Amino acid sequence: MKNKTVLFIYLGFSFLYLAITALEQEEMARLMKPFLLPFLLIAVYVSEKFKTKSTLLIALTFSWIGDIVLLFANQGELYFIIGLVAFLISHVFYIVLFNQQAVTTSISNKISFGAGIGLILLYFFGMITTLGPKLGPLTLPVIVYAVVISSMLYFALKGSYQWAKIPYQSVLIGAILFIASDSILAFNKFYQAIPFASFLIMVTYLAAQYGIVWGILNLNQKK
Predict the structure, then answer these.
(1) Which long-range contacts link 20-26 to residues 24+ away (Cβ below 8 Å)?
(2) Nearest Cα to 152, choosing from 128, 182, 186?
(3) What secondary structure does DSSP assign to 18-29, as a single string?
(4) What is the pTM of this model?
(5) Which residues are CB-contacts of 48 (< 8 A; sequence separation ≥ 6)?
(6) Among the ranges given (73-82, 120-129, 173-182), the one the predictor scored with the smallest mean pLDDT
(7) How do residues 4-56 score in pLDDT, each as one tens digit?
(8) Cα separation of the two ends of the chain
(9) Dist. CA 216–CA 210, nearest whole Å
(10) Is a pLDDT exceeding 90 seen at residue 166?
(11) 205 with 40: CB under 8 angstroms?
């Protein structure tokens, strides 16, 4: 019950943050941003103990660090790189998290699973082909990042076929939204400016984190 209350507060605070972002109140949004993910951290922390709890907390913590560091990205490329590394580590822990979940069934629909893998590969090569010529010295770090987030999506997809049923497939949807957020950020930074980029990046990111956390908590709640 406690975690549901904190998750509800997270949603309310996120809607307020997004409204302020949409109104282009940048200074207020910058002040609020570091206080978003702590609600998810608290929600997980107060939940009953489960096998992957510490892994989820670590993934969220590195995402939170990335959020804070990227607030200073306009002050130098180093801040962007550090933020990228923080989110890279976060995604690695999400991969570990998804891989640690208890498997309740085998993959029966191999055709749709294979199609999903094909879409992930299409996304990966499309991103690299489109952004590659624009990346300059950041080419290798961005390729590594793209490999990791694509792998994260693969393990979320695989889990959606193997785990106990989660309402609305929220972990898989969260993983997709996470990639959408990262992709908007990358295109906006390296390819061309996207209208309302800040709002689009954050609405997909906040929904992604909520979807993953809510799904994992549902997956591990005691019956």
Answers:
(1) 21/198, 21/199, 21/202, 22/196, 22/199, 26/198
(2) 182
(3) HHHHHTT-HHHH
(4) 0.94
(5) 221, 222
(6) 73-82
(7) 899 999 999 999 999 999 998 999 999 999 999 999 999 999 999 999 999 99
(8) 14
(9) 10
(10) no
(11) no
Residue 110 burial (C-beta neighbours within 10 Å; 0-12, 13-18, 19+): exposed
Q: Which pLDDT band, with edges at 50, 70 and 90, does 223 fall under?
A: low
Distances 35 to 42, 62, 207 between C-alpha atoms, Å: 11, 14, 15
Q: State how far the Cα of 59 lies from the Cα of 41, in Å rounded to an integer.
A: 10
Q: Which residues contact 107 (CB under 8 A, 6 or more apart)?
A: 113, 158, 161, 162
Distance CA 219, CA 198 (A): 31
Judge contact between 99 and 155, C-beta under 8 A.
Answer: yes
Are the CB atoms for 29 and 17 separated by under 8 Å?
yes
DSSP-derived letter for residue 103 is: P
